[in-house]
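#struct-help
A.M.: can someone run this one for me? Single chain, 416 residues.
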Amino acid sequence: MSMHNKLSKILFLFALAAGVAFADPIPTEALTQSGLVMRDRQLRDIGLVMRGGRGGFIDIGYTYTPSSEQLQLKSEYGVHDGFAFRHHYGIFGSWVLDSISHLGFLTWFDRAGWDSQDFFFFPHYGDFAHISSSFTWGFSYTNTKYDVTAALGLQHQNLELASHKVYPNESDSLLFYWAHARYKNVSLQASFYRNTFQTIRLSLDLESRSLYGGVSSGYKTFLPNLNATIYRRKKDGGDDNFVRLNWEQNLYEQVLYADVTFDFPDDGFRSAALKFYPVPSRLFAFEASCLRRHERAGAKDLLWGGAIDLFFIRLGYNTVFDYENMFHASGTFIAEVKVNLGSIGGRFFGRGAAQAAPMETTDRRIDLKKSLKALSEQHNLGSTKVDAQGNKVIEAKGIRYEKTGSSGTTSNEGGY
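D.P.: on it. Structure tokens below:
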């Protein structure tokens, strides 16, 4: 049995065990907007890593749907069986230039879409397939004395395939450039296409984090983390820009958080989530969320869900993250095999953590004086000495032997 078939069965059993209900079909419009979603998510992740701007970070994930009826595609020709997917990685590493300066390099990659048959790396390219990718890279510089970070780079958005039967014409390749600047708890990030902005994000990370030299308890840990993002959007041939405000709030000892999002000026409430991390390092998580889709009236428009993150695998149902990053997927479980881990100074943590994971260490320092004394005692053990009368004396383990003259008499004294 191939590795691909084994993984399919494992994930399918996850779905059956949870009593999975097949989702509503995903719309073609969600696939055509995937480029913007991927680029924005990559820049958000980079912004979290730039809070420290040093050390290292790795994020690898594979999202897979085991059934062809789980995330069907809805087009003008009807509903089509197939498979939605998302593969991604993010890597950041830094080098110490001197005692206060760090030079970093980062690369993020996402590949996502929908195809009529499942695959690991090589798509089938079916009649209604849509596959695109986004590649982001850049350099960063951090000065720990002044607590500043600056980063810049490029983003490449590529359309691998889009069936002309159901999708509008799209550019095969687009090049964007981005920049990020942080001073203490304030950061500004922007991306541009030619001379036109695409997103501008202002972040105020007011919560104190011991991971970055702050405190791990007290009122400073309850200060909010706020960010406002301006998105450039086209509607009916004109600009229809909007602002998304996100508020993250520590509720209890940096393990319980509330996360709320609003869209301005028209849409209002967007989503809310309650997240519990068993440890502040965020290596494991449990989440309950609510999303307003702006598709129906009243409470019927709200999408309720939750997720469990067990470091190597994440299982979510109707979560905000899955809805936004898996083409408006709802009504079904989404499984992701993944790992994300950061490190600063030998301390490990998950994405967005306030504290590092506790590490058990053993003190193996050697006491030089005690070692030399022990070696000296071992060297003298069993040595022969001559007393004032010329007699030979041998000492071992506290027992003394004396030999006198030619009489051959020997005496001993117990040393215990």
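A.M.: thanks! Helices lie at 3-17, 28-32, 34-49, 320-325, 368-380.
D.P.: also worth noting: The radius of gyration is 32 Å.
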